[in-house]
Amino acid sequence: MKAVLLNGSPREGNSYTALAALKKGFTHIEDLVIEEIAAGDVSVSPCLACEVCHDSGMCVFDDDTNEIMDDIVSADVIVFATPVYWWGITAQLKLIIDKFYSRSSQLMECKKQVGIIAVGQMPVEDTQYELIRKQFECICGYLGWDIAFYNAYSAYDAGDLAENADAIAEIEELWKQIK
Ligand SMILES: Cc1cc2nc3c(=O)[nH]c(=O)nc-3n(C[C@H](O)[C@H](O)[C@H](O)COP(=O)(O)O)c2cc1C
């Protein structure tokens, strides 16, 4: 089984901490290969809507897009951890998700289990977390993927989530949602 952990944050902050806690739990899953992608560290140009990928299945850019898409296509599990930026996911993560367009028919053919962790400054009751949940429900519904978990946490400074022992303990148990 292969899991891709996609960190939408440009910093080693709360999303990074969440994925580290998740990884600790994921060690319970037998034969799991983990691939980590930090959206802030990769080079992914914005989609041009040139449609070349619709014939070739490849993005025209000579950047990290095609390699990342190879990882996404071959993954059984994809976990998105994203800070909330302006009531939504980060631009860095959205650049990568936009490129799913280049492999959409392939991605629809292979069922995936998806986990989502959203971290924002606002309390977890804020509408922003519902907006993000809805966006992923639409994306996963379109691609035919299953959402195994969606968890939201309130944290602001880079070290805040690490100090929330209850949140970390909860994230470490999320591997149990993967079938
Ligand atoms: C550009 C920017 C926009 C942000 N917008 C929001 C927002 O709309 N709602 C919110 O709750 N927090 C917002 N935040 C705060 C981050 O979501 C918060 O600091 C989060 O913990 C960052 O996650 P990270 O440590 O993984 O980078 C924003 C931060 C930045 C830098």
TrEMBL record:
Keyword Flavoprotein part of the UniProt annotation: yes
A Pfam family matched in the record: FMN_red
Annotated ranges, domain NADPH-dependent FMN reductase-like: 1-120
Keyword Lipoprotein annotated: no
Keywords: Flavoprotein, FMN
An example Gene Ontology molecular-function term: oxidoreductase activity
InterPro entries reported in the protein's UniProt record: Flavoprotein-like_sf, FMN_Rdtase-like_dom, ISF_SsuE-like
PANTHER family recorded: NAD(P)H-DEPENDENT FMN-CONTAINING OXIDOREDUCTASE YWQN-RELATED
Protein name: Flavodoxin family protein
